[in-house]
Structure formats: structure tokens, C-alpha cells
Amino acid sequence: MCETGKEIKLCTCFPATMDKVVHHKNSRKSKNKRRNDFTWTLERCLGPSKYTMDGMGYLPDKTLSEDLTTEKMLIDLNSKNCFDFDYEPAEGDNLTIYTPENNIRKHLSFIFQNEEWIDDYYLPFKYEMKKINYGKVIFEDKNDK
User: Fold this and answer.
1) Is 22 exposed, middle or buried (0-12, 13-18, 19+ CB in 10 A)?
2) CA-to-CA distance for 139 and 129, rounded, in angstroms?
């Protein structure tokens, strides 16, 4: 496996620049700057949904970037605490990491089962989910520590 020298941190804080209004003439500059702004959502599965709904879901990907792959995320999630808040995973919790690309629903998905994170996902509309937290994926150089 290629070692990139970057650690992944799942941060709940958003920098002030994310809320900044982008004026039309600066929109391209901002779009290029935010190309690597990946976001994440952590949800708890409450069980099968009481309501039925038809819809289409997108299957998770294996790679979102050179630094953000399913393989690397599983190593990090199962070897250390990647979250910046107090969190104890519960059976069935679902972590989803999304790409910032507009109109493309690329994402990684992980479920906590049998005391470890695995590469898996829930079928949309089939389970009732409760959002625990969300935020931004931060990449930190290992050499800076």
C-alpha cells in the first residue's frame, strides 16, 4: 500500500470560510480551492423503517482520492480514534464520507459490527437512521506531529 504520510481526522468544527458568501466573480476560485473538502456523517441505525418508500440509492465507492480510500479508512478507524469528539461506536453505527463534487454522489460507507468497522452500507429507505454528528475530513501530515 502506498504510504501518503497523511492522517485522517474527522472534525466537527467548520472553518469560518465554509460559511463565507462567494460572489459570482469569485466562484471559480472558490470552487477550485474547495476541491478536497470532504464531509462525513455519522448515524445510528434504529432498525427497519416503519414506512416504505421507493427510491434509488448509490452504491459506495472504494476510493475518493489518493488519501481517502476504503482500505486506509478501515485501518485508521480500527486502530485509533479518528473523531474529535467523545464517541463510543455502537453496533450498527454508519459512517459515510462524501465527495465535494457537485451532482456526483460518490461516497465511502462503513458500519460498526462485531466491535470493528467494516466496509458496508445500509439500503436507503429501508432503515430508520438517527444522525449522531457530522463534519469535515481533515488531512494532517504525520511529520508535523
Assistant:
1) middle
2) 28
Number of helices followed by number of strands (H, E) in the chain: 2, 6
- Dist CA 32 CA 43 (whole Å): 30
- pLDDT tens profile 88-135: 999 999 999 998 776 677 899 999 999 999 999 998 788 899 999 999
Phi, psi torsion values for 18, nearest 5 degrees: -70, -25
Count how many Cα atoms sit within 13 Å of the Cα of residue 6 in the half-sphere of its side chain: 15
List pLDDT tens digits, range 41-77: 999 999 998 887 766 677 889 999 888 999 999 999 9
